[in-house]
Hints:
The protein is an alpha/beta fold.
Amino acid sequence: xxxxxxxxxxxxxxxxxxxxxxxxxxxxxxxxxxxxxxxxxxxxxxxxxxxxxxxxxxxxxxxxxxxxxxxxxxxxxxxxxxxxxxxxxxxxxxxxxxxxxxxxxxxxxxxxxxxxxxxxxxxxxxxxxxxxxxxxxxxxxxxxxxxxxxxxxxxxxxxxxxxxxxxxxxxxxxxxxxxxxxxxxxxxxxxxxxxxxxxxxxxxxxxxxxxxxxxxxxxxxxxxxxxxxxxxxxxxxxxxxxxxxxxxxxxxxxxxxxx
Length: 259
């Protein structure tokens, strides 16, 4: 059974032997779920300070890190520096209960994760990914090995940035906010060259048309979309472009829902 750590509480000072035993146990942990808004789910201060002094991470073989952001509390970044390591391959981020519509969610937390976990393959976010320019500059050089991304919303900068990743095969997004801009050139040429699976939520026929044009170089094999035909004027011919789309013709699986 894969060890999963969900809660930790230090009830007394540890001896040297107990610290050594804790370090041994730390090598067995592969999955940790951490909610920084819950005091019982965070890292006890004594343990945090001890590993900061050592300059070490708590779980050197950690593979999955589930993290709920904490409104930029100082302990957040301190904890991430003891949790994040090159062994992490999957990160799950949960937004605060307003679903993350505020700007700069997870910043600078996610930029810290990106820098300290260079081998992340899978990124799952409950909320939006929006950044200040400073945080975005830190992010641009990271996530190079991503293979799948699941997120509520992507702004234009991140949508373009993810399109430049050489290994990204799967993208699931509810809203791509940049599609609300009336511009046929949503993405530069040569974007999403490894993308095979694309799933997104509500989109208008016109937005879908422009998105498919931008993805003409992608090797898509599966597309899942919900089209809102009541958002603006809709006529029978508004979806005729699907019959001539090079992307649609190359699909193996196409799920289209009309609402």
